[in-house]
Amino acid sequence: MTAQQDHSWRSLLYVPGNNERFIARAQSRGAGAIVLDLEDSVPDDRKAEARDMTAAAIGDLREGPSRLMVRINGGLRLAVPDLEAVVQPGLAALFVPKCEAGEKLRLISDLVSELEAERGMPVGAVGLVAMIESPRGLHSADRIACADRRVRALILGSEDFATAAGMMPTPEALLLPRQQIVFAARAAGIVPLGLLDSVANYRDAEHVAAVAQRARAFGFRGATCVHPNMVPILNAAFRPSAAETDWARGVLHAMDAAHAAGRGAAVFEGRMVDKPMLDRAREILASDEAS
User: Fold this and answer.
1) Pairing of strands 151-156, 127-132
2) Count of H helices and E strands in the chain?
3) How far apart are CA 178 and CA 17, in angstroms?
4) CATH fold of the domain at 3-239
5) Can you give the pTM of this predicted structure?
6) pLDDT tens for residues 101-117?
7) In the predicted structure, residue 4 carries a pLDDT above the cut 70
8) CA–CA separation, 59 vs 53, rounded Å?
């Protein structure tokens, strides 16, 4: 199963790596993945504590339904001890902040390979999620997305990016960089993650659902969240609807009949359909079947 067909990417719940109570409940939230955070949610003087707690949590949580991921720190002085602590059986992926060039991802990949080999893990098992958080990083998004075979997904750190770009983090201002994330990820065959608007009011389920559905229409296939209330909404919004799957099955049936008659196109529901629509229909059904 490729990353784009894996439903674990629909909802990725951040959990502070130093919050024992939140960690203990993480596998009961229904998220596709839990992202144990060692970066922004942890104060500088609690980094070592969070690292130890997160390392222990991976062993405790690895049998649960959600895949386990860790957001390491962006600077290498903290990232290296993070990797030493958390690369172990049960870890699915690492979120790598502040990616501005492919070299950083390749360096981390090499370090992870050494640790996997030392710890009896299949080399290459741990994926990387590249976080673009600056104009320099966005300029290199295409190269970052295909920098290493471990890179599974691409995401824009909206607040950091807006600050670095000297602009306000409004949906209008961030629309173009967010679309560039989709294009770079799609070109590399990896998962684009993100939303097109803020969901600070996570209690407004209608608003969260509308934002997530719009993001999916723009090409995103999942999103991170900081509150468990958002998890079921993201899971539903990033899954194809019944109407979409009905359309996709209809397109496959129409195209099968057309191919049998020696034609490369067909008419379905009054509209011409051909290979691009067939590819879209197959992706919709693959995503639905992965649920």
Assistant:
1) parallel
2) 12, 10
3) 27
4) TIM Barrel (3.20.20)
5) 0.91
6) 999 999 999 999 999 99
7) no
8) 10
